[in-house]
Amino acid sequence: MRRQGLKPPGAFVRLSEAYRQQPSRWGPLLTTVIILCLVSFIHWAGGHLNPYQVRILNLIGINIGLGLSLNLINGFTGQFCLGHAGFMAVGAYTATLLMMPPAVKQMNFFMVPLVAPLRQVELPFLAALLLGGLLSALMGVFIGAPVLRLRGDYLAIATLGFSEIIRIVITNIRSVTNGALGLKGIPAYTDLWWSWGFALLTLVVVSRLIHSSYGLAFKAIREDEIAAEAMGVGLFRHKMLAFTLGAFIAGVGGGFLASLLTTIDPNMFRFTLTFEILLIVVLGGMGSITGTVIAATIVTVLKEVLRGVEAPMDLGFVSLPGIPGMRMVIFSLLLIVVVLFYREGIMGRRELSWGRVLGTRDKTPDRGADT
Predict the structure, then answer these.
(1) Measured between alpha carbons, how far is 243 from 239 in angstroms, rounded to an integer?
(2) What is the pTM of this model?
(3) Residue 175 is part of which domain span?
(4) Is the C-alpha dihedral spanning 114, 115, 120, 121 positive or negative?
(5) How many domains does the chain contain in total?
(6) How far apart are CA 325 and CA 258, in angstroms?
(7) Is 278 helix (H, G, I), strand (E, B) or coil?
(8) Of 47, 66, 115, 233, which has the highest C-beta tally within 10 A?
């Protein structure tokens, strides 16, 4: 118990919060209303929007899950990893080979036969997704064991190299992946319910994890690894947990993406795919769940809106030829602008809460700072 008249050390006073966020009594009700509105919108969109608009909404949901998985590694744990495209490739190919009907497999593997154990396998969509995620997580353990002992740029280069190795291996094992020809005729199971269910489930899992003791350890590692280790945080164990969970979510997201597009090939999983997900994380804010959701929506919509800049345009007084790849140039310029003027992204490390939205903040200073 604290003795009367004694004040805590100055360091404690400086570290204590000046204002506390009070949980709003309306929070649970408002959250339920938002979820019901989202469910109603998904039900309405499935029957009233055209297929192109529905695909954009599906991509938004998938990108939210992928962005959160990369933010868990890069933003919350502070490990600069660039191997997400490789984990997505593992999950996409695994889920596709497990859920594709035998007749479609035979149609795809007309040059080099598929290996015998996979020829007659046809699993339900959910089981194929989970197995694809598990194999990606296993790959994450295999890759993370050596590379997570590195730091900074060395870690980024190592994970990028492993991602490229995975893509090259997929290109060359033709009896399993069909090589550079890719896989076509993938069953189109992904719809708005699946993609947004994936986004919401990932949001809940990452949020609960970040607000647990593991999340505090992740943030401690991000701020100062030496200090975190001195406080008893197991660096390698927590890094491996974040890396493996991120790889699992990326693998499941790859399976959803494959089922949405109904065709995949190794060129889909180049570094540019990781760059797009990294752009979502940086634009939203490294270490912000809310920022990732906002940025995933913005980036996905902008990718479709900016398709027009790659097509020939007639402005009346001048005709501009279409320039392939101009979208990525604009995205690069966007990233430069964010780095220059919004170095912490749209949200930084802040999060939206009902207390912040409704303005219900307790203006009374923390008792620990006064006594």
Answers:
(1) 6
(2) 0.85
(3) 45-273
(4) negative
(5) 1
(6) 22
(7) helix
(8) 66
Structure token pair of residue 224: 């100062």
Enumerate residues 6+ apart whose C-beta is below 8 A from 204.
Answer: none
**Each residue's pLDDT tens digit in the chain (371 positions)?**
444 444 444 433 333 343 344 445 666 777 788 888 888 989 898 888 899 999 999 999 999 999 999 999 999 998 888 889 999 999 999 999 999 999 999 999 988 889 988 888 999 999 999 999 999 999 999 999 888 888 878 888 999 999 999 999 999 999 999 988 999 999 999 999 999 999 999 999 999 999 999 999 999 999 888 888 888 888 889 999 999 999 999 999 999 999 999 999 999 998 888 888 988 998 888 888 999 999 999 989 988 888 777 777 666 666 767 777 777 787 778 778 877 887 788 888 777 776 666 666 544 443 333 33
Residue 58 belongs to some domain of the structure: yes
Tokens standing for 140?
A: 């994450």
293 domain-assigned? no
Does residue 236 fall inside a structural domain?
yes
Q: Rounded distance, CA 293 to CA 196, Å?
A: 12
Q: Comparing C-alpha atoms, which of 242, 247, 251 is closest to residue 131?
A: 251
E strand residue ranges, 45-191: 183-184
3-state secondary structure of 368: helix
Half-sphere exposure of 233 (CA within 13 A, CB side): 25
Q: Is residue 152 part of a domain?
A: yes
Give the angle 186-187-189 at the CA atoms, nearest 5°. 130
